[in-house]
């Protein structure tokens, strides 16, 4: 990936930072784009000349356009756009406040639309193709109770990837989603702190007996951006150790692969 440039929204997060490190390890330059500038700047400093940090709110069009401008100003182009920004807002639908619904929907889904529109224009202008990957979730198929717009937004991401695969195949830009099961990142740790019994309950539904590692998600993202995956377009790939198929899984078939379920 030498000479290529990646934008990663939510780049300072648990999964996003693994993706940023992996792009740099493959020789690409990275724009670490996150609402948390302190953490993005920390990561960009670690990555040296191969990365810059940009403060962005993916819900805002002007803010997202500044990521593309920074990428072009610093590195001259955009080849990969990865949308990993996210939040996990807890509320049952009956009590859901409109602003919280919008916060979740816009961070996950509208942010992806804005990133695609603005980074997509740059890729089309360059005329050399590119790749887009959304970090969706198994929640696209298995909605999470009391998480409001989270599942609906993730289902929307999968559909948006399908739509763009039709509109952008002519430009050699492939658009796919990666759908992790539970991963132990700051977001998940926050959820487990809120509800300490949840991790044990979820692990019993995981055929693999463990969470997915952020590096495993990053490896799949990098593969989808590589030349080897150029004919994979518009698909949503679960990376969940079989979790989405586990409706009938007997608890006794699960062999835990972790030493301690306490966070
Ligand atoms: N952790 C999991 O178990 C899991 C499972 C499936 C899918 N995912 C998805 O993976 C993605 C990354 O999650 P993570 O676990 O790394 O969480 P994380 O909280 O570590 O990372 C999310 C990042 O998004 C940033 N962000 C939030 N709102 C933003 C905004 N408006 N604009 C720009 N950046 C913003 C945060 O600052 C944070 O750095 C999310 O989309 C999440 O839904 C996570």
Q: Can you walk me through this structure?
A:
With 263 residues, this protein is an alpha/beta fold. It has helices at 14-25, 37-47, 61-75, 98-126, 150-168, 186-194, 198-203, 214-225, and strands at 5-9, 29-34, 51-55, 80-83, 130-135, 173-180, 236-239. It has a single domain (5-182, 213-244), classed as Rossmann fold. Helix content is 43%, strand content 14%. The longest helix has 29 residues, at 98-126. The mean pLDDT is 97. It binds nicotinamide-adenine-dinucleotide. The site of nicotinamide-adenine-dinucleotide (NAD) has 29 residues, from helix 1, helix 4 and helix 6.
What would a concise description of this structure say?
This protein is an alpha/beta fold. Helices cover 43% and strands 14% of the residues.
Round the mean pLDDT to the nearest integer and report it.
97
The CA-CA distance between the termini, in Å, is: 36 Å
**What is the total tally of β strands?**
7
- What is the molecular shape? globular
The radius of gyration computed from the alpha-carbon positions, rounded to a whole number of angstroms, is 18 Å
Helix content: 40-55%
CATH homologous superfamily assignment: NAD(P)-binding Rossmann-like Domain
- As for the number of domains, it is 1
Residue stretches low in confidence (pLDDT < 50, at least 5 long) are none
Pattern of helices and strands: EHEHEHEHEHEHHHE
Oligomer: single chain
Identify the strand order in the major beta sheet.
3-2-1-4-5-6-7
The hetero molecules present are: nicotinamide-adenine-dinucleotide
- At CATH level 3, the topology is Rossmann fold
